[in-house]
Amino acid sequence: MSPSALPNVDHLSTDWLSEAVGQTVSSFDIQDLAGEGYNSRLYRVNVRYTDQSADAPSSYILKLMSDTPIGDAITNNNEVFREVASYQHLGDDLASVVPHAYVATDDKASGHLTLLLEDLGEIPHKPFQADLQTSLDAVRAIAKVHARFWEAQILNLQAFQANNLDQDEVIRTITESLAISKQREERHPYLDECMQHVRTMAPRLLALMRNFDNRASTLIHGDFHCRNIHTVGDQLMIFDWQNSQRGSAVTDIAYWIMTSVDVEDRSRFEPRLLTAYYKALVAEGVNDYSKDQLNTDYRNQASQMVTQIYCYLSLIDLPEDEIGDFLNRIDAVAQDIGLRHQLRVARVMVPVMAGIKRVIRTFRGKHRHQ
Fold it and tell me: For residue range 210-267, what is the model confidence (pLDDT) as tens digits?
């Protein structure tokens, strides 16, 4: 039986730890690692045992729910509990790339979750800027995860269904982000114009995402950037799986490129990263996904990712220089893919496609009753 989820760190006890790690813990002390983050609070728990053994860990990482989680701010399907679900249902298959979990439990009714994880040691603070080799290692590592769960049936579980976006919250978030962007000294008029179109078209675009996305799906990390990886020996580890879900395979790659590759490096890194990712997929046995399809999916995903990262302006408290870097990157991507033109075309095509969808449903309904 797993120990119960902790409401907060004050409820941590030697009895709870002893049950969690299978050894009698005589005392412990707590180090607050990162304050309050996106959805969680992190602590290092240094422990002492009644009978100390040479191979017993001297510390663990404790992850608890944030006091003010924002993961469900624009969704309505318990996004904040997904990391626990990943460990509970997929932990064995992820073992080579995630810290070992001694406890992974939640209490959704009370809004609590608890992860007691292997301590990977000191992880230095990094800028959102990875070099080419780090980026290549990262996309190859996530490709192995994607290949393992390529169109996997277990991802049909409710815990891994894609985010159900709340239309009103999406519009509100874009509106607030637009206001923040226009107050900044460095302006991005092309990007702001695109986001104004997205805000106007949000109901139709959300319907399009729900009804017409048939891209290859797998388990995606959902927050795959350079601060969520760490190399231990020769093994690249990936942590913070709280946004994991079933999704388009190329999502994590697009997100990495926009969050972790400097705007000056993207034109050089992007083709090499996409090629390295594709070769890693093929090496792991994915043989029903062409490089041309990957490139098409990447361009389609990039337009969604631009909007997602733009919304961070109002959702996440980031330093001014990091906000500037993110905006510069997604502005460059938006212009490269012709996002403004895409949105203008979509204004016409979305209702047309919705109409076709209704006709198909009507025809199928009549056919079934004949």
Answer: 555 567 799 999 999 999 999 988 899 999 998 899 999 999 999 999 999 999 999 9
Residues 91, 77 contacting (CB under 8 angstroms): no
11-39 confidence digits (pLDDT tens):
999 999 999 999 999 999 999 986 545 56
SS3 101: strand
**HEC profile for 162-215?**
CCCECHHHHHHHHHHHHHHHHHCCCCCHHHHHHHHHHHHHHHHHHHHHHHHCCC
CB atoms within 10 A of CB 107: 15
E strand or H helix that includes residue 104: strand 101-107
Helices (H), the chain: 14-21, 82-94, 132-148, 167-183, 189-212, 251-260, 266-283, 291-310, 312-315, 320-336, 339-368
Q: Which structural domains are found in the chain, ordered by start?
A: 9-118 (3.30.200.20), 132-359 (3.90.1200)
